[in-house]
Amino acid sequence: MTQEQTLTEFLIAEQRRVPGATGNFTALVNDIRLACKRIANLVGKGSLADLAGKAGSVNVQGEDQAKLDIVANRIFIEIHERAGTLAGMVSEELEDVWQIPEHSRGAYLLAFDPLDGSSNIDVNVSVGSIFSVLPNPDPAAEMGPAAFLQPGERQVCAGYAIYGPTTMLVISFGHGVHGFTLDREIGEFVLTHPNVRIPDGASEFAINSSNSRFWEPAITRYVDECLAGSTGPRGRDFNMRWIASLVAEAHRILLRGGVFLYPRDDRATARSGKLRLLYEANPIGFLIEQAGGRASTGDRPVLELRPTSIHQRTGLVFGSRTEVEIIERYHRDHNVRRFDAPLFGSRGLFRGAG
Ligand code: F6P
Q1: What is the residue with the minimal CA distance to atom 4 of ligand 1?
Q2: Does residue 341 fall inside a structural domain?
Q3: Cα distance between residue 173 and residue 150, in whole Å
Q4: pTM of this structure
Q5: Structural domain contains residue 345
Q6: Nearest one of 187, 48, 205, 59 to 118, comparing CA atoms
Q7: Can you tell me which atom of ligand 1 is nearest the CA of 280?
Q8: Which residue has the CA at smallest separation from atom 12 of ligand 1?
Q9: Does residue 155 carry a pLDDT above 50?
Q10: Separation of alpha carbons 338 and 212, rounded Å
Q11: Are 224 and 130 part of one and the same domain?
């Protein structure tokens, strides 16, 4: 029987591939792993941990915080702030960049969503943590938001932990995607899904269709054609999914193919999209591209976007390459958004609609 490879062994092998590596990056990934294990432990306790429900506060995006959002955020910060690997942190749950004390500063930046999909916790549906590692572009400069405003293609590592029936850590260092399953008996992540590749030709799409009246024409056209199935232009039947948990959706697509859409739409709150670029779209996009798929804003690769603020939102479409390319083509075709059209402008008949 061949010995299973643990994440620790995998990281040591990765470090050996980089001549002159200091071990700082390996230490950083080890800390991310520890944070995810701690969060997995708490999520797994459910109501037994007295952490169920809302905290009674809202985050910088105006969304209700769950108690576990706050605890998961604290776990990430406590583990990383004195580890000597990071120069700064950005979190969905923090308004500003988290400063690292000068004597503990390292070479990397970490952007994370400590508990994505947390509205699903109370109903026992899979949630996850998402993380993105960037190089600190200017170690001499004062740490602030500007350091994080790098396109996603600069990420040196990205991944997520999914807390589902099993806990998994899915990660990429820029050459492929690897999935590790937490073996609770030994407390280690074990490589169970090496070199994940997104299957092409799948027939599942995921979108929250309660927003359909606000969609752009390109999205309506794509979804209508999927719904028309074998009698429509696509000539085959599609199935639909919506978990409302980005990590769970990304995980399914990595393993089974298909496409996910959370497009920008005409709602006042979603005109730039809903999902956050730095700690949702970029890390998920990095994994998807590394697994042979495509991640897009709808009309261009998401990893090329140069962020303008740390909590910026974006439209996001990702999954099997052929499906995403069809959606991008529909965006290039005639795609006038309703709220851009004259009747919806500031002097238009339907001022401020949506
Ligand atoms: O960004 C948080 C999130 O819960 C994602 O995990 C998920 O994909 C999305 O929002 C669900 O949004 P909605 O509730 O609008 O369907």
Answers
A1: 117
A2: no
A3: 17
A4: 0.93
A5: no
A6: 59
A7: 1
A8: 244
A9: yes
A10: 13
A11: no
Q: Do residue 222 and residue 271 come from a single domain?
A: yes
Residue 341: the pLDDT is 55
Residues in the chain: 354
Say yes or no: 162 and 211 in one domain. no
CA dist., res. 321 & res. 310, Å (int): 28
Ligand 1: distance of its center to the CA of 206 in Å? 12
Summarize pLDDT for 314-345 with one digit per residue, the tens: 999 999 999 999 999 999 987 776 555 555 44
**Domain of 227, in residue numbers:** 204-333
pLDDT by residue (tens digit) across 136-147? 999 999 999 999
For tokens 């994994």, the residue is: 287
Q: Say how many C-beta atoms besides its own lie within 10 A of residue 276's C-beta.
A: 24
Does ligand 1 lie within 6 Å of residue 239's CB atom? no
Average pLDDT of the residues in 234-252: 97
Helix (H, G, I), strand (E, B) or coil at 189: strand
Q: In this structure, are 179 and 50 located in the same domain?
A: yes
Nearest atom within ligand 1 for CA of residue 249: 8
